[in-house]
Protein backbone atom coordinates (compact mmCIF):
# COMPACT_ATOMS: atom_id res chain seq x y z
CA UNK A 1 0.00 0.00 0.00
CA UNK A 2 1.41 3.38 -1.03
CA UNK A 3 1.94 5.82 1.83
CA UNK A 4 1.16 9.48 1.15
CA UNK A 5 3.31 11.84 3.22
CA UNK A 6 3.03 15.58 3.77
CA UNK A 7 6.03 17.79 3.05
CA UNK A 8 6.79 17.97 6.76
CA UNK A 9 6.60 14.21 7.17
CA UNK A 10 8.88 13.73 4.16
CA UNK A 11 11.41 16.20 5.55
CA UNK A 12 11.48 14.56 8.97
CA UNK A 13 11.71 11.07 7.45
CA UNK A 14 14.59 12.26 5.27
CA UNK A 15 16.40 13.74 8.29
CA UNK A 16 15.81 10.62 10.38
CA UNK A 17 17.15 8.26 7.73
CA UNK A 18 20.10 10.51 7.00
CA UNK A 19 21.01 10.82 10.70
CA UNK A 20 20.71 7.09 11.27
CA UNK A 21 22.91 6.32 8.25
CA UNK A 22 25.57 8.63 9.68
CA UNK A 23 25.48 7.47 13.30
CA UNK A 24 24.04 3.92 13.43
CA UNK A 25 22.20 5.07 16.57
CA UNK A 26 18.40 5.28 17.04
CA UNK A 27 17.28 8.82 16.26
CA UNK A 28 15.39 11.05 18.70
CA UNK A 29 13.69 14.38 18.15
CA UNK A 30 16.41 16.26 20.06
CA UNK A 31 19.10 15.09 17.66
CA UNK A 32 17.04 16.24 14.68
CA UNK A 33 16.46 19.67 16.23
CA UNK A 34 20.18 20.08 16.85
CA UNK A 35 21.45 18.75 13.53
CA UNK A 36 18.84 19.86 10.99
CA UNK A 37 17.01 23.09 10.32
CA UNK A 38 13.53 21.61 10.31
CA UNK A 39 11.78 24.80 11.45
CA UNK A 40 9.57 23.03 14.00
CA UNK A 41 9.73 22.23 17.69
CA UNK A 42 10.99 19.02 19.27
CA UNK A 43 7.41 18.17 20.30
CA UNK A 44 6.21 18.50 16.69
CA UNK A 45 9.03 16.26 15.49
CA UNK A 46 8.11 13.64 18.09
CA UNK A 47 4.50 13.71 16.92
CA UNK A 48 5.48 13.33 13.29
CA UNK A 49 7.88 10.50 14.11
CA UNK A 50 5.01 8.78 15.89
CA UNK A 51 2.88 9.06 12.75
CA UNK A 52 5.74 7.68 10.64
CA UNK A 53 6.07 4.79 13.07
CA UNK A 54 2.36 3.98 12.81
CA UNK A 55 2.75 4.04 9.01
CA UNK A 56 5.49 1.40 9.27
CA UNK A 57 8.28 3.69 8.07
CA UNK A 58 10.09 3.92 11.41
CA UNK A 59 10.28 1.64 14.42
CA UNK A 60 11.72 1.63 17.93
CA UNK A 61 14.26 -1.15 18.58
CA UNK A 62 13.64 -0.64 22.32
CA UNK A 63 10.82 1.08 24.17
CA UNK A 64 12.96 3.92 25.46
CA UNK A 65 15.06 4.30 22.31
CA UNK A 66 14.72 6.66 19.39
CA UNK A 67 13.49 5.55 15.99
CA UNK A 68 15.19 3.56 13.25
CA UNK A 69 14.13 3.43 9.56
CA UNK A 70 12.31 0.28 8.44
CA UNK A 71 12.77 -1.27 5.01
CA UNK A 72 9.66 0.63 3.91
CA UNK A 73 11.13 3.86 5.26
CA UNK A 74 14.31 3.31 3.29
CA UNK A 75 12.25 2.52 0.20
CA UNK A 76 10.45 5.88 0.32
CA UNK A 77 13.76 7.60 1.07
CA UNK A 78 15.32 6.05 -2.05
CA UNK A 79 12.33 6.44 -4.37
CA UNK A 80 11.06 9.87 -3.34
CA UNK A 81 13.45 11.82 -1.13
CA UNK A 82 16.90 11.61 -2.74
CA UNK A 83 18.58 12.00 -6.11
CA UNK A 84 21.76 10.07 -6.89
CA UNK A 85 24.71 12.45 -6.98
CA UNK A 86 25.63 13.33 -10.58
CA UNK A 87 28.84 14.94 -9.35
CA UNK A 88 29.89 11.78 -7.53
CA UNK A 89 29.00 9.67 -10.56
CA UNK A 90 31.27 11.81 -12.75
CA UNK A 91 34.05 11.64 -10.15
CA UNK A 92 33.69 7.86 -9.92
CA UNK A 93 33.86 7.41 -13.68
CA UNK A 94 36.91 9.69 -13.84
CA UNK A 95 38.60 7.63 -11.11
CA UNK A 96 37.94 4.44 -13.04
CA UNK A 97 39.32 5.97 -16.22
CA UNK A 98 42.47 7.24 -14.50
CA UNK A 99 43.31 4.15 -12.45
CA UNK A 100 42.37 1.39 -14.88
CA UNK A 101 44.28 0.83 -18.09
CA UNK A 102 42.31 -1.38 -20.44
CA UNK A 103 44.96 -1.06 -23.15
CA UNK A 104 47.53 -2.93 -21.03
CA UNK A 105 45.38 -5.19 -18.84
CA UNK A 106 43.49 -8.39 -19.37
CA UNK A 107 39.72 -8.24 -19.03
CA UNK A 108 39.84 -10.14 -15.73
CA UNK A 109 42.46 -7.75 -14.31
CA UNK A 110 40.34 -4.80 -15.41
CA UNK A 111 37.26 -6.15 -13.64
CA UNK A 112 39.24 -6.94 -10.49
CA UNK A 113 40.54 -3.39 -10.45
CA UNK A 114 37.07 -1.97 -11.03
CA UNK A 115 35.68 -4.09 -8.19
CA UNK A 116 38.32 -2.77 -5.79
CA UNK A 117 37.65 0.85 -6.75
CA UNK A 118 33.90 0.32 -6.43
CA UNK A 119 34.31 -1.17 -2.95
CA UNK A 120 36.48 1.75 -1.87
CA UNK A 121 34.15 4.43 -3.25
CA UNK A 122 30.95 2.88 -1.91
CA UNK A 123 32.17 1.45 1.39
CA UNK A 124 30.28 -1.73 0.48
CA UNK A 125 31.03 -5.21 -0.82
CA UNK A 126 31.44 -4.84 -4.57
CA UNK A 127 30.25 -7.50 -7.01
CA UNK A 128 31.23 -7.55 -10.68
CA UNK A 129 30.50 -10.50 -12.93
CA UNK A 130 32.65 -11.72 -15.77
CA UNK A 131 30.83 -11.03 -19.06
CA UNK A 132 28.61 -13.56 -20.73
CA UNK A 133 30.36 -13.59 -24.09
CA UNK A 134 28.27 -16.38 -25.58
CA UNK A 135 24.67 -17.34 -25.09
CA UNK A 136 22.05 -19.49 -26.70
CA UNK A 137 19.75 -18.07 -29.35
CA UNK A 138 16.08 -18.74 -29.96
CA UNK A 139 15.43 -21.34 -32.66
CA UNK A 140 11.70 -21.85 -32.19
CA UNK A 141 8.86 -20.84 -29.91
CA UNK A 142 5.45 -22.50 -29.69
CA UNK A 143 2.27 -21.85 -27.68
CA UNK A 144 0.03 -24.88 -27.16
CA UNK A 145 -3.32 -25.03 -25.36
CA UNK A 146 -3.29 -27.79 -22.73
CA UNK A 147 -6.78 -27.28 -21.33
CA UNK A 148 -9.28 -24.41 -21.23
CA UNK A 149 -7.54 -21.40 -19.72
CA UNK A 150 -4.08 -23.04 -19.64
CA UNK A 151 -1.37 -23.04 -22.28
CA UNK A 152 2.23 -24.24 -22.50
CA UNK A 153 5.05 -22.05 -23.76
CA UNK A 154 7.83 -24.11 -25.37
CA UNK A 155 11.18 -22.53 -26.28
CA UNK A 156 13.86 -24.34 -28.33
CA UNK A 157 17.36 -22.87 -28.52
CA UNK A 158 19.88 -23.11 -31.34
CA UNK A 159 21.61 -25.92 -29.43
CA UNK A 160 18.27 -27.80 -29.39
CA UNK A 161 17.78 -27.40 -25.65
CA UNK A 162 14.08 -27.21 -24.76
CA UNK A 163 12.50 -25.14 -22.00
CA UNK A 164 8.81 -25.07 -21.17
CA UNK A 165 6.44 -23.28 -18.84
CA UNK A 166 2.73 -23.70 -18.05
CA UNK A 167 0.73 -20.47 -18.18
CA UNK A 168 -2.75 -19.41 -17.19
CA UNK A 169 -4.53 -17.19 -19.71
CA UNK A 170 -5.19 -13.62 -18.52
CA UNK A 171 -8.25 -13.43 -16.21
CA UNK A 172 -11.54 -13.24 -18.07
CA UNK A 173 -10.16 -14.68 -21.30
CA UNK A 174 -10.54 -18.40 -20.70
CA UNK A 175 -14.35 -18.54 -20.73
CA UNK A 176 -14.85 -16.31 -23.75
CA UNK A 177 -13.01 -18.31 -26.37
CA UNK A 178 -13.79 -21.61 -28.01
CA UNK A 179 -10.95 -24.10 -28.08
CA UNK A 180 -10.46 -23.97 -31.85
CA UNK A 181 -10.46 -20.16 -31.80
CA UNK A 182 -7.85 -20.14 -29.03
CA UNK A 183 -5.72 -22.68 -30.90
CA UNK A 184 -5.78 -20.51 -34.04
CA UNK A 185 -4.92 -17.39 -32.04
CA UNK A 186 -2.05 -19.14 -30.27
CA UNK A 187 -0.63 -20.31 -33.60
CA UNK A 188 -0.84 -16.77 -34.98
CA UNK A 189 0.89 -15.40 -31.87
CA UNK A 190 3.54 -18.14 -32.10
CA UNK A 191 4.22 -17.30 -35.74
CA UNK A 192 4.39 -13.60 -34.93
CA UNK A 193 6.83 -14.07 -32.05
CA UNK A 194 9.01 -16.45 -34.07
CA UNK A 195 9.27 -13.92 -36.88
CA UNK A 196 10.41 -11.24 -34.43
CA UNK A 197 12.53 -13.27 -32.02
CA UNK A 198 14.09 -16.14 -34.00
CA UNK A 199 17.87 -15.90 -34.05
CA UNK A 200 18.07 -13.39 -31.21
CA UNK A 201 20.25 -14.27 -28.24
CA UNK A 202 18.34 -15.11 -25.07
CA UNK A 203 20.21 -12.32 -23.31
CA UNK A 204 18.79 -9.91 -25.85
CA UNK A 205 15.27 -11.35 -25.55
CA UNK A 206 15.40 -11.08 -21.75
CA UNK A 207 15.95 -7.33 -22.10
CA UNK A 208 13.93 -6.61 -25.22
CA UNK A 209 11.74 -3.52 -25.44
CA UNK A 210 8.47 -5.37 -25.89
CA UNK A 211 6.56 -2.17 -26.55
CA UNK A 212 7.97 -2.37 -30.08
CA UNK A 213 6.00 -5.54 -30.77
CA UNK A 214 2.71 -5.23 -32.61
CA UNK A 215 -0.20 -3.96 -30.49
CA UNK A 216 -2.37 -6.53 -32.25
CA UNK A 217 -1.27 -9.04 -29.61
CA UNK A 218 -1.53 -6.71 -26.64
CA UNK A 219 -3.90 -8.92 -24.67
CA UNK A 220 -1.31 -11.72 -24.68
CA UNK A 221 1.61 -9.37 -24.38
CA UNK A 222 2.34 -8.92 -20.68
CA UNK A 223 2.12 -12.51 -19.48
CA UNK A 224 3.93 -13.81 -22.59
CA UNK A 225 6.66 -11.25 -22.10
CA UNK A 226 7.16 -12.27 -18.46
CA UNK A 227 7.25 -15.95 -19.36
CA UNK A 228 9.64 -15.65 -22.29
CA UNK A 229 11.94 -13.46 -20.20
CA UNK A 230 11.88 -16.00 -17.36
CA UNK A 231 12.72 -18.87 -19.69
CA UNK A 232 15.48 -16.81 -21.25
CA UNK A 233 17.03 -16.09 -17.87
CA UNK A 234 16.93 -19.78 -16.95
CA UNK A 235 19.37 -20.46 -19.78
CA UNK A 236 21.98 -18.14 -18.28
CA UNK A 237 24.09 -20.54 -16.23
CA UNK A 238 27.08 -18.69 -14.77
CA UNK A 239 30.41 -20.23 -13.88
CA UNK A 240 31.01 -20.71 -10.16
CA UNK A 241 33.94 -18.26 -10.19
CA UNK A 242 32.21 -15.61 -12.24
CA UNK A 243 31.71 -12.86 -9.64
CA UNK A 244 34.58 -10.62 -8.56
CA UNK A 245 34.06 -9.81 -4.86
CA UNK A 246 35.92 -7.06 -2.99
CA UNK A 247 35.47 -5.10 0.26
CA UNK A 248 34.14 -7.92 2.46
CA UNK A 249 36.39 -7.35 5.49
CA UNK A 250 35.56 -3.66 5.85
CA UNK A 251 31.79 -4.14 5.57
CA UNK A 252 31.75 -6.96 8.13
CA UNK A 253 33.08 -4.50 10.72
CA UNK A 254 29.76 -2.65 10.59
CA UNK A 255 27.55 -3.15 13.68
CA UNK A 256 24.85 -4.80 11.57
CA UNK A 257 27.13 -7.83 11.12
CA UNK A 258 27.90 -8.48 14.77
CA UNK A 259 26.26 -11.92 14.82
CA UNK A 260 28.53 -14.78 13.77
CA UNK A 261 25.75 -16.82 12.17
CA UNK A 262 24.76 -13.94 9.89
CA UNK A 263 28.36 -13.44 8.81
CA UNK A 264 28.79 -17.16 8.08
CA UNK A 265 25.70 -17.36 5.87
CA UNK A 266 26.73 -14.22 3.98
CA UNK A 267 30.24 -15.52 3.38
CA UNK A 268 28.84 -18.86 2.22
CA UNK A 269 26.64 -17.06 -0.30
CA UNK A 270 29.56 -15.01 -1.62
CA UNK A 271 31.95 -17.94 -1.84
CA UNK A 272 29.88 -21.07 -2.49
CA UNK A 273 26.48 -20.02 -3.85
CA UNK A 274 27.41 -17.40 -6.42
CA UNK A 275 25.02 -18.85 -8.99
CA UNK A 276 22.06 -17.69 -6.85
CA UNK A 277 23.58 -14.25 -6.41
CA UNK A 278 24.44 -14.00 -10.10
CA UNK A 279 20.86 -14.50 -11.21
CA UNK A 280 19.70 -11.86 -8.73
CA UNK A 281 22.13 -9.10 -9.68
CA UNK A 282 21.80 -9.76 -13.42
CA UNK A 283 18.05 -9.12 -13.37
CA UNK A 284 17.18 -5.70 -14.72
CA UNK A 285 14.30 -3.43 -13.71
CA UNK A 286 11.76 -2.17 -16.20
CA UNK A 287 12.13 1.55 -16.79
CA UNK A 288 9.86 3.92 -18.67
CA UNK A 289 12.79 5.68 -20.33
CA UNK A 290 15.25 3.16 -21.85
CA UNK A 291 18.13 5.66 -21.79
CA UNK A 292 17.96 6.15 -18.05
CA UNK A 293 20.50 4.21 -15.98
CA UNK A 294 19.07 0.83 -15.12
CA UNK A 295 19.87 0.53 -11.42
CA UNK A 296 18.05 -1.89 -9.14
CA UNK A 297 17.88 -1.21 -5.40
CA UNK A 298 16.69 -4.12 -3.26
CA UNK A 299 16.29 -3.22 0.40
CA UNK A 300 16.18 -5.73 3.25
CA UNK A 301 13.29 -8.15 2.91
CA UNK A 302 12.92 -7.26 -0.79
CA UNK A 303 15.91 -9.55 -1.36
CA UNK A 304 14.74 -13.13 -2.02
CA UNK A 305 17.96 -14.69 -0.73
CA UNK A 306 17.86 -15.29 3.02
CA UNK A 307 21.53 -14.40 3.79
CA UNK A 308 21.02 -10.84 2.48
CA UNK A 309 17.50 -10.10 3.72
CA UNK A 310 18.99 -7.63 6.21
CA UNK A 311 21.14 -5.99 3.51
CA UNK A 312 20.71 -3.66 0.57
CA UNK A 313 21.79 -4.83 -2.89
CA UNK A 314 22.27 -2.18 -5.57
CA UNK A 315 23.02 -3.46 -9.07
CA UNK A 316 23.10 -2.60 -12.73
CA UNK A 317 24.22 -4.27 -15.95
CA UNK A 318 27.00 -3.38 -18.32
CA UNK A 319 26.51 -3.96 -22.02
CA UNK A 320 27.97 -4.72 -25.37
CA UNK A 321 25.97 -2.35 -27.53
CA UNK A 322 22.35 -2.79 -26.44
CA UNK A 323 22.78 -6.31 -25.04
CA UNK A 324 23.57 -6.72 -21.32
CA UNK A 325 26.54 -9.04 -20.81
CA UNK A 326 27.50 -8.61 -17.16
CA UNK A 327 26.56 -7.03 -13.85
CA UNK A 328 28.03 -4.61 -11.37
CA UNK A 329 26.70 -4.09 -7.87
CA UNK A 330 27.33 -3.30 -4.22
CA UNK A 331 26.07 -5.09 -1.12
CA UNK A 332 25.96 -3.56 2.34
CA UNK A 333 23.75 -2.97 5.37
CA UNK A 334 20.44 -1.23 4.76
CA UNK A 335 22.05 1.68 6.60
CA UNK A 336 24.19 2.88 3.72
CA UNK A 337 24.76 6.09 1.78
CA UNK A 338 22.23 5.50 -0.98
CA UNK A 339 22.93 8.68 -2.95
CA UNK A 340 26.60 7.74 -3.28
CA UNK A 341 26.14 3.99 -3.75
CA UNK A 342 23.56 4.33 -6.53
CA UNK A 343 25.71 6.93 -8.29
CA UNK A 344 28.92 4.87 -8.24
CA UNK A 345 27.15 1.69 -9.38
CA UNK A 346 25.66 3.56 -12.34
CA UNK A 347 29.06 5.10 -13.12
CA UNK A 348 30.82 1.74 -12.97
CA UNK A 349 28.21 0.16 -15.25
CA UNK A 350 28.60 3.02 -17.76
CA UNK A 351 32.39 2.76 -17.64
CA UNK A 352 32.41 -1.00 -18.18
CA UNK A 353 29.85 -0.72 -21.00
CA UNK A 354 32.12 1.71 -22.81
CA UNK A 355 35.33 -0.18 -22.06
CA UNK A 356 33.98 -3.64 -22.88
CA UNK A 357 33.55 -2.61 -26.52
CA UNK A 358 37.35 -2.67 -26.83
CA UNK A 359 37.61 -6.35 -25.86
CA UNK A 360 36.88 -9.26 -28.17
CA UNK A 361 33.93 -11.41 -27.01
TrEMBL record:
Molecular functions per Gene Ontology: DNA binding
Keywords for this protein: Repressor, Stress response, Transcription, Transcription regulation
InterPro entries named among the record's database cross-references: GAF-like_dom_sf, HrcA, HrcA_C, WH-like_DNA-bd_sf, WH_DNA-bd_sf, WHTH_transcript_rep_HrcA_IDD
Name this polypeptide is given: Heat-inducible transcription repressor HrcA
Superkingdom of the organism of origin: Bacteria
Gene behind this protein: hrcA
Presence of keyword Cell membrane: no
Species annotation: Amazonocrinis nigriterrae CENA67
Domain annotation Heat-inducible transcription repressor HrcA C-terminal: ranges: 108-342
